[in-house]
Amino acid sequence: MLQTAGSPKTTKLTTFQKGDEVSLAKGTYQGTIGTFLNFKNDDPNWADILEQNSQVRCHPIEWLQHSPRD
Questions:
Q1: Cα torsion for 57, 48, 45, 40, to the nearest 10°?
Q2: Is the pTM of this model over 0.70?
Q3: Label partner for 63 (CA 20 to 30 A): which of 3, 13, 23, 26?
Q4: Is 23 domain-assigned?
Q5: pLDDT less than 50: residues of the chain
Q6: Are residues 28 and 58 in contact, defined by beta-carbon separation less than 8 angstroms?
Q7: Would you say residue 5 lies in a domain?
Q8: Tens digits of per-residue pLDDT, 12-21?
């Protein structure tokens, strides 16, 4: 069986692990830095991020990128 472009399985889903430093490369909160917590159980295209202000927010995975560590 061939996967189509609309297939829910993407390579980005395997690139983030709990504790990874991430930043928002797109979206309303672009530039926000935080820590990746987990993928949403009900929609793996979204993730919970612990932001630097100690607030946990949910963002689309496609907006995230790994942040380089200093």
A1: -120
A2: yes
A3: 3
A4: yes
A5: 1-4, 7-13
A6: no
A7: no
A8: 445 899 999 9
